[in-house]
Design goal:
By secondary structure, the chain is an alpha+beta fold. It has six helices and nine strands, in the order E-E-H-E-H-E-E-E-E-H-E-H-H-E-H. The protein folds into two domains: 48 residues, Ribonuclease H1, N-terminal domain (Ribonuclease HI, Chain A, 3-Layer(aba) Sandwich), CATH 3.40.970.10; 143 residues, Ribonuclease H-like superfamily/Ribonuclease H (Nucleotidyltransferase, domain 5). It is 29% helix and 18% strand. The strands form two sheets. The protein has a six-stranded mixed β-sheet with strand order 4-7-6-5-8-9. It has a three-stranded antiparallel β-sheet with strand order 2-1-3, with helices on both faces. Helix 3 runs parallel beside helix 5. The longest helix is centred in the middle third of the chain and has 18 residues. Keywords: Endonuclease, Hydrolase, Magnesium, Metal-binding, Nuclease.
């Protein structure tokens, strides 16, 4: 393995993603409470770690599994990080880092093209994420008492990341059904935002392969999302999860209901 054949996966940090150097990774996790990250020799392993662990701290059906529609009423101390995920201590002294600047939990839409666009919140949930008895679901929240609010179990492998993606798929399908021409999708999954806004272009050029030649995870759902967004203009925005953002909290609640419906097939 060459010196540069290393991938730092950040599943919980300032910016979720895959990084090629420890310094880039450290910027995202040093001083971040309950950071979750790990180094891997391949991009595929790093992406799997992010997908399986992105929301771990919070907690095969056929594609025609049920969809439920609802009228929803629904001074930090840390120690410097090291590449292997351990914390440094010198004797009994704890290293103290400066508190990180935090972005707004729910940023406003400032893009002139989308200021008047409808906003929908999407989320995925998975109990026992990454384990054999995992149960995953998706949730879509359009607004208080909206008849379009919906949730359901994922189809395919039960992971949190797949739930996040299927929630977007369902939201775009509903937007097209409603005749919308543009939509703002707010999600607490930075991995999803990066996948749709950045990485998907390279994956398509490579025949849905990663830079290391492995298959892209959840390709089937990503292809559906990519096709759906050709039919309307979509802006994906990241919001902080579990930070009191009403729409995100409601979408999370719906996704958990969807996960409770999951039944493994096959």
């Amino acid at each position: 393995m060459g010196k540069n054949d290393q991938y730092y996966a950040v599943a919980r940090g300032r910016q979720v993603g895959i990084y090629r150097t420890w310094n880039e990774c450290k910027t995202q996790v040093d001083g971040f409470q309950s950071a979750r990250y790990k180094k891997f020799p391949s991009e595929a392993e790093a992406r799997k770690f992010v997908a399986d662990n992105i929301n771990v701290a919070g907690s095969m059906p056929k594609p025609d599994v049920p969809t439920v529609k609802v009228g929803a009423s629904l001074n930090n101390k840390s120690t410097p990080s090291t590449p292997d995920g351990t914390r440094k201590r010198k004797g009994n002294e704890s290293w103290r880092s400066s508190p990180a600047k935090r972005s707004k939990p729910d940023p406003e839409v400032t893009d002139p093209e989308f200021i008047d666009a409808p906003v929908v919140y999407t989320d995925g949930a998975c109990s026992k994420n990454g384990k054999a008895k995992a149960r995953a679901g998706w949730g879509v929240y359009w607004g208080e008492d909206s008849e379009d609010n919906a949730f359901g179990p994922v189809y395919g492998t039960a992971t949190n990341n797949r739930g996040e993606l299927i929630a977007v798929e369902k939201a775009l399908e509903k937007a097209i059904e409603k005749g919308l021409t543009k939509l703002v999708v707010k999600t607490d999954s930075n991995l999803l935002v990066q996948s749709i806004n950045i990485w998907i272009h390279g994956w398509k050029r490579k025949g849905w392969k990663t830079a290391t030649g492995s298959d892209v995870l959840n390709k089937d759902v990503l292809v559906k999302i990519d096709n759906l967004r050709q039919k309307l203009k979509v802006k994906f925005m990241h919001v902080r999860g579990h930070a009191g953002v009403d729409g995100n909290e409601k979408a999370d609640k719906l996704a958990r209901k969807g996960a409770a419906m999951y039944t493994k097939m096959g």
